[in-house]
Amino acid sequence: MDFHLEQNLSNLRNTVPLVHNITNFVVMNYTANALLAAGASPVMAHAVEEVEEMVSIAGALVVNIGTLSAHWVAGMKAAMVTAAQLGKPIVLDPVGAGATSYRNETLTELLDVASPTIIRGNASEILALAGASVQTKGVDSTAASDLSLEAAWALSKKFDCVVSVSGAIDVIVKGNQTAFVSNGVALMTKVTGMGCTATAIAGAFAATVADPFEAAVSAAAMMGVCGELAYRNAKSPGSFQIAFLDCLSEITPAHLAELAKIRIS
Amino acid sequence: MDFHLEQNLSNLRNTVPLVHNITNFVVMNYTANALLAAGASPVMAHAVEEVEEMVSIAGALVVNIGTLSAHWVAGMKAAMVTAAQLGKPIVLDPVGAGATSYRNETLTELLDVASPTIIRGNASEILALAGASVQTKGVDSTAASDLSLEAAWALSKKFDCVVSVSGAIDVIVKGNQTAFVSNGVALMTKVTGMGCTATAIAGAFAATVADPFEAAVSAAAMMGVCGELAYRNAKSPGSFQIAFLDCLSEITPAHLAELAKIRIS
Amino acid sequence: MDFHLEQNLSNLRNTVPLVHNITNFVVMNYTANALLAAGASPVMAHAVEEVEEMVSIAGALVVNIGTLSAHWVAGMKAAMVTAAQLGKPIVLDPVGAGATSYRNETLTELLDVASPTIIRGNASEILALAGASVQTKGVDSTAASDLSLEAAWALSKKFDCVVSVSGAIDVIVKGNQTAFVSNGVALMTKVTGMGCTATAIAGAFAATVADPFEAAVSAAAMMGVCGELAYRNAKSPGSFQIAFLDCLSEITPAHLAELAKIRIS
């Protein structure tokens, strides 16, 4: 399988997709800037009074539960229902899944109203989400990385969606397909919202790439490659977060394709 | 007409006006930092329980509808009523006007409780706002830029306020007066919240310049000139947003007056 | 008294404490990044549905009233009650105390449900908070700096907590102990949320240092020293805020201990 990274980023930049984000307070500014830098157009709107109209003019919906409260959950549900009806891609970030019952219950409610196109989280979030909705084979006999892969497969099958697990090596699964993206640097874990940004960028690719699996792989590669480029000049978290935005804007489609390290199994 | 940019910026910095912002989640940090850098003192408070007291100690009120919800609208209305009663300048940013019915209806409600001193938006927002509240002459026979100018004039007359339309060339109108500010760089459209920041800076000038038209022109010039200065050293959006804050702080009143490109018609 | 700064910062970084923040919209991104850079792990969660669970897995709770509204206050109270029951340190930032009745009343309510471990604010906030809850000896015969010291002592006695007053010289009091930290640069007042960041960093030290007085002094020293280091390369507010995050990450425990200027009386 070939992932057409060059063409996908070119298309994203030519299309300038509107990405509707219902996301958390911590990362809103950064993910909006990342979407702009990458070539998309962000809009943030959460009120139940307007999310249906907003998602109807957007190319994709990104839902992120980082800083939940009741009226935001109502907006998330309404937006997801409309997105599903209109066939718009939905990208879900289960931030902090497993940390509190409220997050777990909210995720169950959200997944009840519509299946996401892509779920993107870190290993512990994917494990928690899978644990809440599917049966895994138990922890004892399985290595952690195998476990999260198993959880990703289970989630993917249950919701018929792509599951993207961020880590030192990103793992993206859909049905029988599995891709590994081994770009990125450890410093990315020291900047808040890098995972949320990966989710937002997945929304931008999902709005412009027909195959959600390819969209998720393209987004993971874009994040990892730009992380590596930013790290060349910025070794500390403050300057890194700024350099990363610069790289999202400066990277050429050809350079992305050249630097991406993707393995399929 | 002469705009006294040097004196206006000096006054702003000597006065350090308190600017009360009820603004959106995406830009709050950036507009607060921009106000501080320019020489003002920002405060953010949205609860209906406290906005009346807060606006009463402020020099100006900035209302921005970027991320609406019902209890924020209640706070906006209460603050605008109090500001109008106390004669404090009100600057309104109709973010996303025209995108959803909820935004249009909220703008109608806000404009019903008090007329702003300055309305600042981009061309599509000003067109949408004018379309919702005044009759324009139709799109067919008029170029887009002429149309937004016509919309700005109509809004200005209807609400007896200054209307500032941001774009490659900013247009500021009040009654029969029209000013064009041709500073700025295209990269400003790739940083989230630059328009919201223009609105906040307009609030700072409105708090310290007697004539609202001159305040709006001064703010547009300050934004555009600092954009040009920042662009000298920062060509990508991450580093540009940081350089822009630096320039807001570093620019001297004399340098602002020297670099501003203002034309009156 | 010796403050073991080197060991305290080493412990913080080895422990990577989870700091639960219920803070304001303006600073959330920056304080999360500051906590990560310093070596802690931030989580933001405000909903009454989940704060009890969240605080139970955290090392400390930080409550900051910068952008209040009713359902956030409910979350703050629930979190403080749980933190007190579980013996977790609580750090309270009374942002804007004295500016509105709503802030004063909210602070009274919060202090009724649980005594904080550390209260950190600027002089006017500490004076307002003390004025609302204890009797000071009157303004006329006392210099301002003496007054805020008197207010800090009064608050410390009333709530049996540490009180940390930020300023050109930070003053930290607990019972009969008083420490003065004379690090820092004036430019810190031109970046929004530096005070809120001091509060968050105090939360990180409170989670990992047994003595709250020593935790508060360590946090004040960390902030001031990193401010001085950042200022070496960044003299304007935009670049300073980024350099400051870099310094929080780069500073070694030994360097912190070497540069801290602490006086005890």
UniProtKB/TrEMBL annotation, chains A, B, C:
The EC number(s) this enzyme carries: 2.7.1.50
GO molecular function, one term: hydroxyethylthiazole kinase activity
Binding site for ATP: 120, 166
Needed co-factor(s): Mg(2+)
Catalytic activity field: 5-(2-hydroxyethyl)-4-methylthiazole + ATP = 4-methyl-5-(2-phosphooxyethyl)-thiazole + ADP + H(+)
SUPFAM superfamilies: Ribokinase-like (SSF53613)
Keyword entries, A-Z: ATP-binding, Kinase, Magnesium, Metal-binding, Nucleotide-binding, Thiamine biosynthesis, Transferase
Pathway membership, UniProt: Cofactor biosynthesis; thiamine diphosphate biosynthesis; 4-methyl-5-(2-phosphoethyl)-thiazole from 5-(2-hydroxyethyl)-4-methylthiazole: step 1/1
Residues annotated as binding substrate: 44, 193
Annotated function: Catalyzes the phosphorylation of the hydroxyl group of 4-methyl-5-beta-hydroxyethylthiazole (THZ).
Protein name: Hydroxyethylthiazole kinase
Organism the protein comes from: Dyadobacter linearis
